[in-house]
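Fold it.
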Amino acid sequence: LALLNGRTYNDFLTFTSNHKKMNICEMDTVEGNKGGKVFLTIIIRKTKFMFIRLLDKKNIASVNKEVDKLKATLGIKLFSKIFRIVLTDNGSEFLDPLKIEIDYDSKRKTCNVFYCEPYSSYQKPNIERNHEYIRRIFPKETSLNNLTQAQVQRLEVTINHIPRDVLNGKTPYEMTKQKYPELIKKLNYPHIG
């Protein structure tokens, strides 16, 4: 595929070794029952903070709509800072990298999308590990069709408030509030005591 030119996993490794300070996110989808609604998940590697969005369908249009919402909520400057490097898989729903990378208002590139090798989910270990929290509540084949965005928001907030050993006992929420306070503010993110 031509769109993979410059966006392979090897390109990702080269790019990240040359841009060590740039933020890296991993992106994926979590399916309920076949053909139903799915979760779009994005994790910030440094803080383990995970975004969960409910998609009506597992397709490009649904992913693009959520990316547009994130750009609108955060503003391009903050979006570009948080999602500077995005690593995802070769799922057909992610095969419009320009929609994620380009700010269509200014026509400027705001981030870089890269793709894992096929059948290599281990190349994005953070998001795969975080999906275990989702699967505790929604085992495979569980329908997501009757969920509301408010319920999904509660799920996201709960997961982001679970302390992690890898964060020295802190939560993804705490780490993100410390590192990216403007993100927590723009998301109007609730703190669970």
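The longest helix spans residues 60-74.
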